[in-house]
Write a structure and sequence with these properties.
By secondary structure, this protein is mostly beta strands. The chain has two helices and 20 strands.
Length: 261
């Protein structure tokens, strides 16, 4: 009986862990996207200041429901035509530029218009009003890029390589309809990218996102966007479903981990 009890306890513990995030002392922003597009827990403002989105129905998220971030017009759960516009939230209280972790689940359809030779699927964006020498805004952006039949996950941490934006670039073999977990961590030493619980590449920094450079951080737009790019150039949004987006004020991962445990 004792052995059986221990086994059952282990199963119960695992089932409780492998699911939605629970807020803790280090959680700044947590959105389950089960019933609303606002955050379920936050230390800042939980409501979006702009954008439009629908929540899935019938368990369409990774855990429960999710944020339906389809790029093209679609039919929502009420059977009516709908369109997704990137959601913007205030930075204040919801994200710490010096140290933190951004993570979420994403399921993509990769249905970019055929005329786009290099489709760009923007997932998360913090824009600064400063620009590089190619007139691109300096920003912290997570984007999937399609190129010559392959897919790459790019993370731009708001830093420059000379006079152009630096990026962490990782090839991914994602297919339509698959769920994948993305985590980006940062502190005053490095920015690191984790895909499906595995560390990939990192980049040295001297002060967190935007390299702690006052010229950039003091000129932020004051928002972050889920599912798109501020001042969009007409590129794709996520073209899929985002679920369980959490922002923390600590580096949660330094090695392999099991997502959502």
């Amino acid at each position: 009986m004792k052995a059986i009890f221990i086994t059952l306890a282990a199963i119960i513990s695992t089932s409780l862990q492998a699911g939605e995030f629970k807020e803790d002392a280090h959680t700044l922003f947590l959105a389950h996207f089960n019933k609303q597009i606002g955050a379920d827990f936050t230390k800042g403002n939980p409501e979006p200041t702009g954008g439009s989105a629908t929540i899935t129905a019938g368990g369409g998220g990774k855990f429960g429901e999710g944020l339906w971030a389809k790029t093209e017009p679609f039919t929502n759960k009420l059977g009516k035509p709908d369109t997704f516009y990137p959601l913007s939230y205030p930075l204040d209280g919801n994200l710490n530029l010096g140290v933190g972790t951004l993570e979420f689940w994403i399921k993509m359809d990769f249905s970019a218009a055929p005329e786009k030779a290099t489709p760009l699927y923007y997932l998360f964006d913090i824009p600064s009003m400063q620009t590089d020498n190619k007139d691109n805004l300096i920003r912290f952006t997570v984007v999937v890029v399609g190129q010559q039949g392959k897919k790459y996950l790019h993370v731009f941490p708001g830093m420059l390589d000379g006079q152009t934006n630096k990026a962490i670039v990782v090839a991914v073999d994602w297919e339509k309809g698959e769920w994948h977990h993305i985590a980006v961590t940062w502190d005053k030493q490095e920015v690191a990218l984790f895909v499906d619980g595995h560390p990939t590449k990192s980049m040295a920094t001297q002060g967190g996102l935007f390299d702690g450079n006052p010229a950039y951080t003091q000129d932020l737009k004051g928002i972050f966007l889920i599912g798109g790019l501020w001042k969009s150039d007409g590129s794709q949004g996520p073209d899929g479903i985002i679920d369980e987006l959490r922002i923390s004020d600590v580096v949660r991962y330094t090695a392999d981990f099991e997502p959502n445990k």
